[in-house]
């Protein structure tokens, strides 16, 4: 365990002196640091343990550290060591000075094919190395590609990455994650996906933006955006060379079975031009990780979940739950027997369930409650109600018994309307 000391010239962290803040995020900040022994510059990612626990991203941080420990490649941001105190984690990372690839494209526009191909070669080198180590990034995008002082790329932000232990028995990953414009169609399909194949799709989106200056799939309406992704609906500018067009078509193939592999990309004629593979640095010493970094204990807070409270869901799960955004509706017939009704409410989950319980009890139904779920039954029918919390909104799912559900729905919507209409301004 280390103790950060404040000196007149700056904060001292072991042999590092911390300087200016390079950036800030939801659960910490990144500061410039200098090794006082060697004089070398580093970036120190400082994570607040309480914030990590509050945001329920403990596993994500542990995964990022475990992943970066495995990776020693010139096109991947290097983790040098991990220090910790009782309240903070300090990730000492390679200092990359050239900013994000996103900023370069946003300010200068598309790159010439020769320059774009060089960056794409480095990207594929880095991603291929990660896959060979059993690491699948799952959030490759321009914002997560950094540039060093010489213009070489560095893949960063492995917080959503997957390792072999994250695969299910079917050999596939099932967590829906990533960034909307870069996510592969099979990830959206929510039936399991291969991490390597989905990463390749994201690399294809990055290549398209590098060479054109804009995204291949883009729309303000998420449903329309995901429909375009699912169908592989994009246009190739005529001024792109035939070789670049051909490779983009092979990568942005919506069917993951038909999509080109990394080996296929490396053998592609357009890709091979002036290609010099990078050499990994696997022979270097192991990375030191302070055991205190993984010592994080849940602390009671008013905002924390209590036993039996509704589960938290993320944006992708919300999209998958919504019939207007569920992509399967574009391609599959709905089974009426499985139809569900969903709506949102401003009531707390507790109040919502109590209101529902009062109504259905008066209607002669039996009610059983457990772990945020309410089972309602009678001699003629049975259905259940489940609440999921998205920030401060309660998303309620009703199964079957449509007439009864509609009675409850209308009552709650009417109650919400009255509450909103009589709410006094703050």
UniProtKB/TrEMBL annotation:
Enzyme Commission number(s) of this protein: 2.7.11.1
CDD domains hit by this protein: CIPK_C (cd12195)
InterPro entries for the chain: Kinase-like_dom_sf, NAF/FISL_domain, NAF_dom, Prot_kinase_dom, Protein_kinase_ATP_BS, Ser/Thr_kinase_AS
EC top class, as a word: transferase
Domain Protein kinase: 16-271
Binding site for ATP: 45
Cofactor: Mn(2+)
GO terms (BP aspect): signal transduction
NAF domain sequence ranges: 308-332
Coiled coil: none
GO MF entry, a single one: protein serine/threonine kinase activity
Catalytic reactions on record: L-threonyl-[protein] + ATP = O-phospho-L-threonyl-[protein] + ADP + H(+); L-seryl-[protein] + ATP = O-phospho-L-seryl-[protein] + ADP + H(+)
Keywords attached to this entry: ATP-binding, Kinase, Nucleotide-binding, Serine/threonine-protein kinase, Transferase
Pfam families recorded: NAF, Pkinase
Key word ATP-binding present: yes
Family named by the database record: Belongs to the protein kinase superfamily. CAMK Ser/Thr protein kinase family. SNF1 subfamily.
Protein name, UniProt field: non-specific serine/threonine protein kinase
């Amino acid at each position: 365990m280390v103790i950060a000391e404040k000196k007149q010239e700056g904060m001292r962290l072991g042999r590092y002196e911390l300087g200016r803040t390079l950036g800030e995020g939801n659960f910490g900040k990144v500061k410039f640091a200098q090794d006082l022994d060697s004089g070398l510059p580093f970036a120190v990612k400082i994570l607040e343990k309480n914030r990590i626990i509050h945001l329920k991203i403990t596993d994500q941080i542990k995964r990022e550290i475990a992943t970066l420990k495995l990776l020693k490649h010139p096109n991947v941001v290097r983790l040098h060591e991990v220090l910790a105190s009782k309240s903070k984690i300090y990730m000492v990372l390679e200092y990359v000075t050239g900013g994000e690839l996103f900023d370069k494209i946003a300010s200068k526009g598309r790159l010439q094919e020769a320059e774009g191909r060089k960056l794409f070669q480095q990207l594929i080198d880095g991603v291929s190395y990660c896959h060979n180590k059993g690491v699948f990034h799952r959030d490759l995008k321009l914002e997560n590609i950094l540039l060093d002082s010489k213009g070489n790329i560095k893949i960063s932000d492995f917080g959503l990455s997957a390792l072999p232990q994250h695969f299910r028995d079917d050999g596939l990953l099932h967590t829906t994650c990533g960034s909307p414009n870069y996510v592969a169609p099979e990830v959206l399909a929510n039936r399991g996906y291969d991490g390597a194949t989905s990463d390749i799709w994201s690399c294809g989106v990055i290549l398209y933006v590098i060479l054109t200056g804009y995204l291949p799939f883009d729309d303000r309406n998420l449903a329309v955006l995901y429909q375009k992704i699912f169908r592989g609906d994009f246009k190739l500018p005529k001024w792109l060379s035939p070789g670049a067009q051909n490779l983009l078509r092979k990568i942005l193939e919506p069917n993951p079975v038909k999509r080109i592999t990394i080996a296929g990309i490396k053998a592609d004629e357009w890709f091979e031009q002036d290609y010099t593979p990078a050499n990994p640095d696997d022979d270097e010493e192991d990375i030191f990780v302070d055991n205190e970094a993984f010592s994080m204990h849940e602390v009671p807070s008013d905002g924390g979940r209590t036993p039996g409270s509704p589960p938290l869901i993320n944006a992708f799960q919300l999209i998958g739950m919504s019939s207007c955004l569920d992509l399967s509706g574009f391609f599959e017939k709905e089974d009426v027997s499985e139809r569900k009704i969903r709506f949102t409410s401003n009531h707390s989950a507790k109040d919502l369930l109590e209101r529902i319980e009062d109504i259905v009890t008066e209607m002669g139904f039996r009610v059983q409650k457990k772990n945020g779920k309410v089972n309602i039954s009678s001699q003629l029918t049975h259905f259940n109600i489940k609440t999921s919390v998205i920030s401060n909104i309660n998303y309620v799912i009703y199964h079957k018994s449509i007439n009864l559900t509609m009675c409850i729905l209308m009552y709650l919507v009417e109650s919400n309307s009255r509450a909103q209409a009589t709410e006094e301004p703050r």
